[in-house]
Please model this.
Amino acid sequence: MEVKIGILYASRELVIETAEGLETVEQKVADAVEAGVLTLTDTKGRRVVVPGERIAYVEIGGGVSGQVGFRS
Model:
């Protein structure tokens, strides 16, 4: 699942591909706003830590996979 995180005062968003479910990511984001830290693990096992007070927005989606080539 693809998670895009907008961070205050950063020019680009953070994009993470994770195997965690929608409900799990939503709960972690809600907890991060209250507790102060969002921690997610990507599909390669790397941990990403974002300060909760710097989160501008979070977009949770399925992502697009398997598309190759051009469409006319």
Summary: The helical segments are 22-35. The longest strand covers residues 55-61.
